[in-house]
Amino acid sequence: MTVYLCGDLGHRAGGLDLAALAGWLTERHPQTEVRVTPGPCDRPERWLDREGTRADRLLLGLCAADRDRAELHARARRLGFDPLAIEVVDLGATCALTPARAEATRKARALFAAALARSRAYRASGPENARPVFTWDQPVSRRSLFTLPPIRWEVVPSIRDEACAVGRGCRACATLCPHGALRAEGGRMVLSKTQCTGCGACVSTCPVAAIDLPGASLAQIEAQLDALLGSDAANGSRPGILFLCHRGAPALRRLPRPGAAHPIDWLPVELPCLAMVTPAWILQSLQLGAAAVGMLACRREECRFGQRETVEGRAGYCQATLAALDLSPDAVWVADVTDERGLAEALSRPVPSVPLPVGGGRAGVDLRVDHGATANALLGLARQHGRTPARALDHAQSPLGVVTLSPGCTVCGACASACPTAALALDQADAAVTLSFDGTRCTGCGGCVPVCPESVVHVDRHTDLAVLSRGQSVLRRDHVARCEKCGGAVATRALLDRFASILGRDPVMSTITRYCEACRGSLS
Amino acid sequence: MRLADLARCRQAAYRFLGEALRPPEAERLATLRLVAEELWQRPGPLADLAVFPQWLDLLRRLLQSAEGKAGQLDETYVRLFVASSEGICPQVASQYLAPDAPAPVMAALEGEYARAGLALSANATEPPDHVTVTLDFMAHLCAVEADAWQRRHSAMAVAQLDREAGFLQRYLGPWLPAFARLVAARDPDGFYARVTETAGTLAVHDLDIVTALAARSREAERR
Q1: Which residues of B touch A131 (CB under 8 A)?
Q2: Whole-angstrom Cα distance, residue A248 to residue A253?
Q3: Other beta carbons within 10 Å of A230
Q4: Which residue from A142, A156, A158, A283 has the least number of CB within 10 angstroms?
Q5: CA gap A216, A254 in Å, rounded
Q6: Could A82 and B201 be called an inter-chain contact, meaning their C-beta atoms sit closer than 8 Å?
Q7: B191 versus A142: which is more confidently predicted?
Q8: Cβ neighbours for B14, distance < 8 A, ≥ 6 positions apart
């Protein structure tokens, strides 16, 4: 790993103590080579000389990382370097303008530790993760037909077929994608590179973590958040997590008195688009130590991914959830990148902190949907604040669902087979069969509803702490009738009753109820 | 960048990879090293492709290690592709696309070649679905495309792009990555793992490029 630090960071505004920062980096991370680079960092691609590419990972600490990274990536590629193995830390926005030098340096350490963690969690990308974009600077014409502008390569997600739950009927990513880039085809979920914008919304929504976006993968974000929440950036006080896209850092630098009057030390996490941020990310950040979570979003008409409504809806859900727990909903906010005044106000707003977990070590960040990321954060928050679990919330953006059954379930298990997160599970033991439900895993996708042959399954997008705190609970249990001939399972009693209600006194009933399917075939 | 130049570069890449997957005879390797040196010095539009890091790695391997010299690769080639007690990595498309019924794949490929006015020569030792033959054919398609751009015959170039897209989609894209994975599993750090990985990556990226170019060119044609 090689770290480049722009030399200008030492004397911009309060400045950073670059020698101390470099010393800390080499002491804490002995495999890291730190180079303080003189000269402006507006074209970091110039730093990538052949010597620099000997490292397999690069970390760039820049005064300003506003410029489109296409040139940096193109230069890296030309030198034989994986462009996605480059992490950029915008220190100008978040550190150099912090008034006190020692504070700024401490914050820079936290940001570097987090960037190092994110970089280490990067595995690799494949050809399926790149798509070419041609940006002609002139309209299409016969003249321009024979030439080509430089090719930009954008990152798009890829789907791990072996993990994808499309075979169980899951369509969570396809339903969410506003660009129609995902569709189920031939038993696989297929991503159209031409329609995908690389916003990453599908990555965090996938209930089984089968979608990967190299550079902003779930594992990378987990590692980064973990490092930020465990850092000493705020010198003993609680940090704030600030999710932003690449347009966010310039907005921070435009603030009239950046960092001067902030009661919280804001630590930025850059993402392709804020649509990646799910309620689990927000609530887990709060539960694991963040004093507040801010989201610096593009205006509806300016978001190149068209995701502003998703961002607001999810923030709204988190605010409502906090309110339901008698916690301050102000701990979560969304501000416009172009509204400097609103942003300054949001950053300066004092927020009563959520109490930290008492005793024991802090749990690590786990953003996987099928690991109960949202539910675990909610339950943790309720526990930390001493809230009873008898609280429920109806919200259209609830990432959680509650499954109920009306009378008539035959415990056939079709719903459990269709559940992508195993929130519904069917267990067979000896003479009993049990259908259970674990609310912490339910995403409210509704995949279980259409497959029920009796139409008795119902799903509500509903956050119910009582259901969540119960964990796995029994929805329906029934006995299994045994075959008189071989002792094997025939069917549940409820299913046989259902047959009886249809067939009445038909003589075939006596065979159906007494023998299993295999033995029925061998009866003379 | 001129589209004709891009097509010529792609042609060179496919041709190079095809040759690299043929038996490592001394004369062939010497030629490959000469071409590798030239491509290392003047990569041209290849440097703009996402496959370039792998490409550079492959060239470096050929130029800087002993592998690029005669006699070093013979044993590996035989062990991977010809005969081995552990089984080989088949170099033919049909083994990946339709292992139980290879004949239709080979017939379809021969049909593709015939539509392009080509046929396997009578003394050809490789079957029509052999990796080297398919890569050579792809190089041929790129060459025809380059000529069309050169002569500013855009309709013909677009038709050629469509043909390339179809060939990549049906015959190279679906199996080259699987072939590369198989070779990488058997010889993770070897020369042939680099060659097949580069070929598989190029096929995937090239399909994206060719599809986008065809769409753009069609739009321009309509104006």
Answers
A1: 208
A2: 9
A3: 18
A4: A142
A5: 26
A6: no
A7: B191
A8: B135, B136, B138, B139, B142, B202
Per-residue pLDDT of B107-135, as tens digits, reads 999 999 999 999 998 888 899 999 999 99
Q: Is the ipTM of this complex over 0.85?
A: yes
Sign (positive or negative) of CA dihedral A366, A371, A374, A377: negative
Burial class (CB in 10 A: 0-12, 13-18, 19+), B55: buried
In the chain, the amino acid numbered A333 is W
Give the span between the Cα atoms of B37 and B59, in whole angstroms: 8
Which chain A residues are Cβ-neighbours of B211 within 8 angstroms? 194
CA nearest to A214, candidates A130, A325, A327: A130
Residues 6 or more apart whose CB falls under 8 angstroms from that of B77 comprise B23, B24, B192
CA distance A141 to A407: 66
Domain architecture of chain A: domains with CATH: 1-124 (3.40.50), 127-212 (3.30.70.20), 394-479 (3.30.70.3270), 480-522 (no CATH)
The SS3 assignment for A425 reads strand
Residue B88 in 3-state DSSP? coil
Strand A292-297 with A332-336, pairing: parallel
Torsion of CA A412, A418, A422, A426, to 10 degrees: 10
For residue A488, CA distances in Å to A15, A262, A522 come to 77, 69, 14
Go through the domains of chain B in sequence order and give each one's CATH number.
3-222 (1.10.3480)
Q: Which helix (H) or strand (E) is A66 found in, with range?
A: none
Please report, for residues A109, A295, A310, the alpha-carbon distance to residue A277 in angstroms, rounded to integers and kept in the order given: 24, 9, 9
Question: Which chain B positions have a beta carbon within 8 Å of A141's beta carbon?
Answer: 220, 223
Q: Which two tokens stand for residue A504?
A: 């009445």
* Per-residue model confidence as pLDDT tens digits over B45-85: 999 999 999 999 999 988 887 665 667 788 899 999 998 88
In the beta sheet, which residues pair with residue A477? Answer: A434
Secondary structure element (H or E) that encloses residue A334, with its range = strand A332-336
**Whole-prediction pTM:** 0.88
Q: Residues of A near B (CB-CB distance < 8 A)?
A: 74, 77-78, 80-82, 126-128, 130-134, 136, 140-142, 144-151, 153, 193-194
Query: DSSP label at A250?
Result: H
Could you tell me the CA-to-CA distances from B140 to B13, B110, B136, B167 in Å, in that order?
Answer: 11, 14, 6, 12
Q: For A74-92, b where at least 16 C-beta lie within 10 A, e where not — what string? A: bbbbbbbbbbbbbbbbbbb
Interface of B with A in 112-141 (CB under 8 A): none
Half-sphere exposure of A481 (CA within 13 A, CB side): 20
Contacting residues of A for B217, CB less than 8 Å apart? 145
Q: How many beta carbons lie within 10 A of that of residue A210, not counting itself? A: 23
